[in-house]
Design goal:
By secondary structure, this protein is an alpha/beta fold. The chain is built from twelve helices and eight strands. The chain has helices at 14-20, 22-29, 46-55, 59-62, 78-84, 95-101, 108-111, 134-148, 159-167, 172-193, 218-221, 244-251; strands spanning 3-9, 34-39, 89-94, 113-115, 123-127, 152-157, 197-202, 222-228. Strands 2-8-7-1-6-3-5-4 form an eight-stranded mixed β-sheet, with helices on both faces. Strand 4 and strand 5 (123-127) form a beta hairpin. Helix 1 crosses helix 10, helix 8 (134-148) packs parallel to helix 10 and helix 9 runs antiparallel to helix 10.
Amino acid sequence: MNRIVFVLLDGLTAATARRCLSYPQTLEEAGLARYTELECFLPPLSRPAYATLLCGLPPAQSGIVHNDDKRACPAPTIFARAQAAGLVTAAAAYYWMSELCNTTPFDPAGHRLTNAPGMPIEHGLFYSNDDYPDNELFNDAAALCQAFQPHLLLIHSMGIDHAGHCHGVHSQEYRNAARRVDGLLARWLPLWQNKGYSFLVTSDHGMDEDHSHNDNTEITRRVPFWLFGPAWENVPTPDSQLEIARLILQGLGLNSKANHA
């Protein structure tokens, strides 16, 4: 059975990824990773994009078209599908992932530390501050990995997005946030690869010079996408964010029927 780590680097533009993320490009140059770029659906906002990535529906079909919509995903998510198949699921992620997949609204006392067999995300460490340090996030992911050996693990970083909102896409702070994540990928992914994991690394949307990402522009919609590890040997590289949920299920060896039309 394949095991997958899904790394979601919130707010990372494709251009900044190509400039600042050296580790996955090292794997590319060695022929160990595949890269492409995808376009985020309109509106290029986080919660609508999360729903697309989790269940394979564009915002116009999911109905989740703004960040204040606290509904759960309207179709089975990758976590629900994996859990129903008897796989172990986990996430170190921003609390909106808990709302979309498990329980809404989010209750920090009840949901920040999730250990609930039978829920789509069975084991979770969810944070609610946008400036939650990425190094602590990866420590959270490592703790989940060690304790539960999940088949599907989501690592959802907000550090790059937060830097973009505070300083803009062309700032030193934004680029350095991306470089810090690159260092964390280089530290942790080889360790998890030795435990049999394969990896998907991408973003939900980009960022612009106005410290935002609502506009219909290439810099807000163009995102990076990497695959590496044995789970993807017979899986084609996607050309749409709609295909990511199906691709993850296929990598896990599950029925890869997509939810989208």
